[in-house]
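Q: Can someone sanity-check these two? First one:
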Amino acid sequence: MNRTIAKQTRWTVILSSFETYGYLTTSQVQRLNNLGGRRNTTRILNDMSDFLSSFREGETVFYLNANGRKEIGSEKPQLRRTQHVGHTIMRNDVLIALQPEYWRPEYTVKWDNHAIQADALLRTKNAYTFLEVDITQSTAQNQRKIDMYRALKDTGRWEKKHGNFPAILFVTVSEYRRDRLRAILDKAGLESQVLTRDDLK
């Protein structure tokens, strides 16, 4: 396959974005790589089909196949479609919108006999944020998670090691779920924000 240097460079950048984020939708690839209109983005992704696998989840979701991983020298495990794809896609919406200077997925904090895992830890301008993606969790599950954040804050251990306790950012799928989360977080007395996915567009 003959590729110009410019095309090769662009493809490498796009493939590397999959290395970073895992699963990306057409619109996320478009925003992340400044590819202009959707038609142009779709054309480019179709041209790159030898290096990408895809499936439908609302819109088309792409990820690196074996050829794509080999093309950029990826050492990460091969992805497969799982029930958690929607969760990852929504997390990536947040990361693309906020562009944190640093982030780690599935960040776990342990203390005493307790542990809490955030969907991601973000840092922007030296301020940390715990990210939680809420799609189908029950109110009881969210209550327990928020109670754990409150318990962690009350230990003072994070502040002693890292400075100010992180804000909690929940991203959810509806105004109803936003209101329920907002009420629980307000009661817990934690610095927090609740957004819907539409807020990120």
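And here is the second, same format, sequence then tokens:
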Amino acid sequence: MTTTFAPLSRSLFALSIFYGGMVCIAGVLGNKQVSLGPLSAIGSVFGLGPLAVEAGIFAFLLLVVISSAVAELHGRDTANRLVLLGFAPLVASIILSIIVRALPAAPDMQPANRDAIQLVLGGTWRIWLGGIVAYGISQTLNVSIFSWLKGREGSRLLWLRSAIAGVLSQAVDTLLFVTIAFWGVFPIGELLAGQMIAKVVLSALLVPPLIYAVVAIGRVLDREPSAAGRH
């Protein structure tokens, strides 16, 4: 008996590749703290200093966008499988980082470059664990909330569904990661509050317009070519 599998759509193929790349690069980008420009002043409203955020948030916001777009185009089950498959590049990138960091540098490598890459690739087991746990739970939560709201609203209010799912999932992501990685190492209250506020603001501002763009691109990719275009 021969099993026939449905062909993979072009949008799902493209979005899956992009998703895997963002999973891998997020950890590298996270080594830099970036100012939010005018948005940094929001911290003073909550009695905090100027807000800053680790740059990996930009890759994670794109993960939120992609997983939500896949849920919109291909359904919740497919989006959840994408999140699950994302553990493969995430864990592989962590293992490779550990191996490369342990390998001796070439004798003629510039000392500044050698020290910089060792710092970028470095990390404690709590940071690695925090990243894995936060990724899995926050991305699954994002897909679940987005899909649940779609079940109530249908295909309407895409901007609202994506904003709510993005904000809540990023708040949970921050709570899990900061707690697992830094609890007991130093007081995490201000760091947790600052990161959560910054991520919530960025999620509310960036996720809705980006998901409209990604969904539109996905629909174009899946559009059947016209008869005239096939000749």
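A (reply): Looked at the second one. The chain is about 75% helix and 5% strand. The mean pLDDT is 85.
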